[in-house]
Amino acid sequence: MSFTNAPDLEARAAVVKQDLDNVLHPIVQHKSLEQNQMVIVGGQGSTIVDANGNTYLDAMAGLWCVNIGYGRTELATIAAEQMQQIAYYPHTAMNLPAAELAEKLNGLMGGGYHTYFVNSGSEANEAGFKIARQYQKQERKGEFRYKTVSRYWAYHGTTMSTLAAGGMGERKGKFEPMDGSFVHAAPPACYRCPFGLTYPSCELACVKNMESTILGEGPESVAEVIVEPIMSGMGIQVPPDEYLPEVEKICRKYGILLHVDEVINGFGRTGKMFGHQHYGVSPDIMAVAKGIVSAYLPIAATVVKNEVFQSFYGDAAENRQVAQVNTYGGHPAAAAVAVRNIEIMQEERLADRAAELGAYLMDGLKTLYSRKHVGDVRGKGLLIGVELVLDRASKEPVPAGLIGGVVEFCRDNGVIVGRSGGGVRYSNTITLCPPLVITRGECDRLVEVLDKAMGWLEGKLSATA
Ligand SMILES: Cc1ncc(COP(=O)(O)O)c(C=O)c1O
Are residue 47 and residue 187 in the same domain, yes or no? Predict the structure, then answer.
């Protein structure tokens, strides 16, 4: 069965039946899949193609991940060549591509880091939690530091511990109760400040709340703080510039490790190679995934400062080694593809491009303030949120069902956009995270379609008023 030429509608129908009869999909309702049977068969640059031959501008880069864009066939060649040489051997031994990738990551961090390989962003954070706990056990013998302090509204992954670390009630509610070793502070979410304050007169109440949370828990019980520099899942929250440096100071003051989640922020997305590099902080632990390989194959990593690495270094009898293993970590084919993915980013200066095109797109999106229901447009680089409200004074969110309508309207007009939250609360921000190769023309089209979608929304809301 091939979709490479003209659309083959018979083949498409067969795939749809095969899928609906056999697949259990993540997070989408199967009933709605029966209506919206999108079968994706191709892609190039920022464009994806479905089995009907329709093209879409993918302003979400898949699931916030195809940073170098679709259709880079040279990556298929690299994977094939590596698999012909050696497809797999466990990472208890060494292999060439994983060593090269770890060296590249170390270089991107300016030196001083070692890398532990895993397969997904969730696992990268999980490994970070465990490394933080093991480090604290080994280094602070009189203490029992096992807690992770996170923020409400955070998303750090889908496994039980990363969900526990996350602060999205809707995402974890069905699996609760969760591990109590994850505690939460208030997020730096200025448009909806949890304290009802305004920056800068707030004097960073969210930082004070982080410190009081740590003091309340007892700093001697806290192993690490995890932060996503620019929070993505709950509608792109860009913190005040001082926020992350202040959080870092608190970590240093109380002997707590700083764990930075760069799963979405990383690899050029925000206009620098990593999100934390906007703020001059130095993570002890960094989780990377998605953009590390632009999703061409699954690979992710937990990158640790050499001071942390040193804690795991010693004679075998000391039993200090990383106390975990995963089958596919450091997979040679995925690592080889990730190395080339990063080279492409560097050759094409995609982080700079994200800064430049992000500013261009942001200017375009700000024209949407002429529309009644656009409450806030915010972001950094090509990570942008457009928060929709019923009216600007009350900031009451546009109901989730209508946000779903906006997303569908855009898709029906050839543009894929995302939405924040877990589908009910705080789900009123349209999220944009396009491939970093998006063109100015495509940015214009995105703004144009969103503008039309705002017209559609105005019509819907005035009809129900
Ligand atoms: C900030 C952040 N961290 C971690 C993850 C988990 O990554 P994965 O889905 O690869 O497990 C995600 C996924 O979207 C994410 O957005």
Answer: no
DSSP state of 174: G
Co-location of 88 and 214 in the same domain: yes
Q: What global pTM score does this model have?
A: 0.97
Examine the domain organization and report whether 268 and 302 are in the same domain: yes
**Where does ligand 1 bind, in terms of residues with CB under 6 Å?**
64, 120-122, 125, 155-158, 228, 232-233, 261, 263-264, 289
The pick from 27, 64, 125, 155 for probing ligand 1's pocket by mutation, whose C-beta has the most ligand atoms within 8 angstroms, reads 155
Model confidence pLDDT, tens digit, residues 178-223: 999 999 999 999 999 999 999 999 999 999 999 999 999 999 999 9
Q: What is the CATH number of the domain that holds 419?
A: 3.90.1150.10
| Atom 8 in ligand 1: residue holding the nearest Cα | 121
Q: Which residues pair with 384 in a beta bridge?
A: 379, 432
Beta carbons within 8 Å of 156's beta carbon, 6+ residues apart: 121, 122, 125, 150, 162, 163, 165, 166, 226, 228, 261, 263, 287
pLDDT in tens, 278-312: 999 999 999 999 999 999 999 999 999 999 999 99
Distance from the alpha carbon of residue 294 to the mean position of ligand 1, in angstroms: 13
Specify the CATH number for the domain of residue 168.
Answer: 3.40.640.10
Q: How far apart are CA 194 and CA 188, in angstroms?
A: 8
Residue nearest to atom 7 of ligand 1 (CA): 121
The torsion defined by the Cα of 268, 271, 274 and 276, in degrees rounded to 10, comes to: -160
Q: Which of 264, 288, 296 to mutate to test the pocket of ligand 1 (most atoms within 8 A of CB)?
A: 264
Q: Does 457 map to a domain?
A: yes
For residues 119 and 299, what is the distance between their CA atoms, to the nearest angstrom? 4
User: Do 161 and 262 sit in the same domain of this protein?
Assistant: yes
Those residues of the chain that have pLDDT short of 50 are 1-3
Are 45 and 161 within one domain? no
Among left, alpha and beta (phi > 0; psi -120 to 50; other), residue 68 is alpha
Residue 383 forms beta bridges with which residues?
A: 380
Structural domain span for residue 282 = 74-347
- In ligand 1, the atom with minimum distance to the C-alpha of 265 is 1
Q: How many domains, in total, are found in the chain?
A: 2
Domain assignment present for residue 387? The answer is yes
Which of the listed residues 172, 263, 267, 299 should we mutate to test ligand 1's pocket, taking the one with most ligand atoms within 8 A of CB? Answer: 263
Mean pLDDT, all residues of the chain: 96
> In this predicted model, what pLDDT tens digit does every residue of 50-105 receive, in sequence order?
999 999 999 999 999 999 999 999 999 999 999 999 999 999 999 999 999 999 99
